[in-house]
Amino acid sequence: LLFIPLVVVIVIALVFLTISPPQKPFFQFVKVSNTDYNNGGNVTVYFISWYGCPFGASDSWGLYLALSNYGTLNVTPNYSDVESLPFTQTQTVTSMVPGLIFNSFTPRSAVNFHAVYLLDRIFPNGTASLTNGTIIKFGQILNVELHELKKEVPSWVYNLVYEYQLQIPYQNSEPFAQLGNPPHIASSIIISGKGGTWMMIGYDQEVSYGAPGILAVSAEGNPQAPEFLLQMLHRHSIPQSLDFIYEEGIQINQIILKAMG
């Protein structure tokens, strides 16, 4: 009598585990591998984006806070392109997101950081510019980005980006990169160390669903907003409405610590 219920419980548990899909790194940090791709004891952080990306602009503030614990960053305040941005679960705003462009990182710890920008801007006339000023058509963007990415990053970074943005469907639809208008590689953060490898594509909706829109609204009408926000960050005096920046910085730092093993 005891044996049959136990078998049933085991079978149900196995079925449940079988049908529960693994988490994917869309708009959240997910551990995508137990592998330490560095093979050297350090933690490596990769930020893959483009100068006009609103999600990348949103990501940049938490990254700046987290990485400041491990080295010195040289940054340029920046605005993203104008896009329709999530503000709440039911509202969007059309605006630019204040952010930071990472120029260099001087480590003072066992954490290394690499920022890779694949594009400059995307224009509404069907063209985009590369970081060297070259103009390309929408239909060329993905191939050009993949070519640049392969030149700029190790194969394991390229393979993760390719797998999760061009092979795996997003919400039973097309792969994530194909859903862009135009299709393009979305901003991604990858963190790898002895403890494994984590990845996020887009921005962290677990911290704030409306982060890009909230940042954009906070900066409207102020061309110097990215510079002022950076100054407030240094003074630990950002507005309460932007507290999610601190939360994201803490989360990224926690993942770096986990990656350290």
Can you put this structure into words, describing what you see?
The chain is an alpha+beta fold. 35% of the residues lie in helices and 25% in strands. The strands form 4 sheets. It has a 5-stranded mixed β-sheet, sandwiched between helices. A hairpin with a 5-residue loop joins strand 9 and strand 10. It starts with a helix and ends with a helix. Residues 1-19 have low confidence and may be disordered.
Low-confidence stretches: 1-19
Annotation field: number of helices: 7
Q: Percent of residues in beta strands? A: 15-25%
- Radius of gyration of CA atoms, rounded to a whole number: 20 Å
Numbering strands along the chain, what is their spatial order in the largest sheet? Answer: 1-12-11-2-7
Describe the main β-sheet briefly.
5 strands, mixed
User: What is the approximate shape?
Assistant: globular
Query: What is the total tally of β strands?
Result: 12
- Alpha carbon gap, first and last residue: 46 Å
Q: Which secondary-structure class do the elements indicate?
A: alpha+beta
SSE string, helices as H and strands as E: HEEHEEEEEEEEHHEEHHH
Helix amount: 25-40%
The whole-number mean of residue pLDDT values reads 92
